[in-house]
Amino acid sequence: MMNTSAPITVGVDGSAESDAAVRWATAEAIRRRSGLLLVSVFNPSPMSAGYMAIPIDLTTPMRDAAQDNLRLATDIAEQIAKDERAALHIERRIICGNVRQSLIAVSRQASTLVLGVRGSDHAQFGLIGSTAWALAGHAKCSVTIVHDQPGRQAPDRPVVVVGVDGSPSSASAVDVAFTEAGLMGAKLVAVHAWDYRIPGPVLDPFHGLSLPDVEQAATTLLSDQLAAYREQHPEVEVEQVLAHDQPIPAITAAALDADLLVVGSRGRGGFTSLLLGSTSHGLLSTVECPLMIVR
Question: Closest Cα to residue 198, out of 236, 146, 245?
């Protein structure tokens, strides 16, 4: 379950994707009536020569750029709050240090960490694509990856999609997805993908069953994992989707016009030593809607 008392936290670097992340995070903070924390990290170490210390005057332009990024992000958030006539508490923080390590540390006190899928070209103080990928697996809270979609038309009714596979991580994702759908007034589409062609009992939870039995077992699995949350959120309309396919293409297709996709960090077939499952990792590069990976 997401810690709703903690702030929505955004990694800010001045890129278009970062601005999109700020817009999404601001709307989320307003929906949750929580605080918004904007964080800009600059890292002078790539400019160092060997073990030579960085003169303070060389870090000043980088700090100034970080402050400019925060000012622009604050303007975006304040304008959205003004348009929505909503009270929004905004905090700003500048950190000098390694981008990934700093944001992982910040994530310990966040309800969700929001990042643009790609960051500024100025990697010494910006978020880059690899940073978002790494934080999706290492952050201590849920992570939401946001694309910049300037031409996207808002649908008549929002849609939240959640991937369901029966695992504990999936149950956490379903919990969060119902909450998000309720806050957004959205329809919830729950997708369970199964592939009868996968061999072996480790990768296939339905190993040894006939095709009709697999279809029935998949239907039962999806219904059972949704049941308790449907009772808690009777206001949320739910559509169940069973797909005889691999999870990544099935979920990608379902989320084509979604406003949010929610998945667990690890699935049924994941190894506990892996911080990010193959499905959630693969979806990072296939979906264009905001992707929330729930721990």
Answer: 245
Q: What is the pLDDT of residues 152-209, one digit of tens each?
A: 666 678 999 999 998 888 999 999 999 999 999 999 999 999 875 554 444 455 566 6
CATH of domain 159-294: 3.40.50.12370
pLDDT digits (tens, 9 = 90+) for 223-250: 999 999 999 999 999 999 999 888 999 9
Query: For the domain with range 8-146, which CATH number is right: 3.30.70.270, 3.40.50.620, 3.90.320.10, 3.40.50.300?
Result: 3.40.50.620
Interhelix angle 16-32/56-84, rounded to 10 degrees, is: 50
Start and end residues for every CATH 3.40.50.620 domain found in the chain: 8-146
Report whether 144 contacts 113 (CB < 8 A).
Answer: yes
Question: Could you tell me the CA-to-CA distances from 67 to 17, 43, 56 in Å, in that order?
Answer: 18, 14, 16
